[in-house]
Design a protein that fits this description.
421 residues; alpha/beta; 21 strands; binds ligand LLP
Amino acid sequence: MDFFHYENNELFCEEVLVSDIAEQVGTPFYLYSHRTIVEHYRKLDKALESIEHLICYSMKSNSNLAIARSLANEGSGADIVSGGELYRALKAGFPAEKIVFAGVGKTESEIEYALKMGILMFNVESMPEADLINYVAGKIGKKAKIALRVNPDVDAHTHKHITTGKKENKFGLAIDEALGYFTESASKENIEVIGVQAHIGSQIVSTMPYVEAINRLTTLINDLEKIGIKIQTLNIGGGLGIIYNEENPSTAQQFAEAILPLVGPTGRKLIIEPGRFIVGNAGILVTRTTYIKKSGSKTFIIVDAGMNDLIRPALYDSYHSIKPLKMTGAEDITADIVGPICESADCFAKERKIESVNAGDLLAIFSAGAYGFVMSSNYNSRPKVAEAMVIGDKYYTVRERETYDDLIKGESIPEILIHDK
Ligand code: LLP
């Protein structure tokens, strides 16, 4: 479900014609639909309403301030993985007491920043990390609330780069050793253990891996209670999948129906950390065709966006639907849709059937709201693109396009290298 649709063969985002925005903002740019973001959040929130819960939007999927604020306005919390994301989350208006901090490599200064700001809890991934949190909390006279991230050894059946809950992954603490880790953490003076957390992967389309993970976590929680460690929150991470092509992911309702009977009776607060589910299909990347190149038997549609702007196809071989902003009814052709970067991987789609387009035509790369802009880079000295958001019948630029000056910001040439007369 999203609020991008064709009307008279032209693409609209909510009530705004996307090509109008392209004329004003220039290309390439990311475009987000506010209504889609909010609807996705509300669907999940509503599906979980029968139990106490907190949705912590995963900032890493898209940390633009306008998106974050849209969710904070809905009552969402935030899942962060760095000091930078904490800074953004607070700037966007998430209350500190709704922020959970994940990640295997939190540094001392990040921990101190988070403690001072009063975040809800750390999701701790190792004993040395627990030691460091204990030390920093003691230093500044605070008690740190934590959940331990457990690795439940569940196969989420997703891409190998985004599976995180298997034994061999670097994330979390092995579930069969967890009792010891919890006991050790609970004995630390400046730490209060309040929760159990797990995140098993991303783009998970079935509810089964969640059910399996929750069952394992519940057994652990019961064992913990027996030794006097009271668990208040059960955080099952993010990972809910979306439709990119022909996937059939479980809906918010189906997800809730599968997990609520397991979590509800325990009386514990459920925390989830969705990213992609909320923003994935709420964003597109709009790009203009620069050339149509024919070479041998191949046709290449060369566009002005590159892998530096959206790296998912190059990195994960991921599928993104691509369509012209204006459908002309021209015959389909089969082409590779590629960017201008000097890498063979700079390809958004291989041998893709697409309505024939001409140089100058605008294209939309769909399902680009999650892990799109946030993973973009300046490779090939390309300024980062603009981001815009439609709210009803208006659009707003929510991040300016970078300039060439931005590209060299902070760089300098040592005096000794300057030989100008
Ligand atoms: N919580 C934790 C601890 C995570 O590591 C992640 C994502 C999430 C929540 C949010 O997951 P989501 O609901 O968005 O699936 N760059 C990859 C995805 C990497 C996901 C990393 N962790 C991609 O473009 O597919």
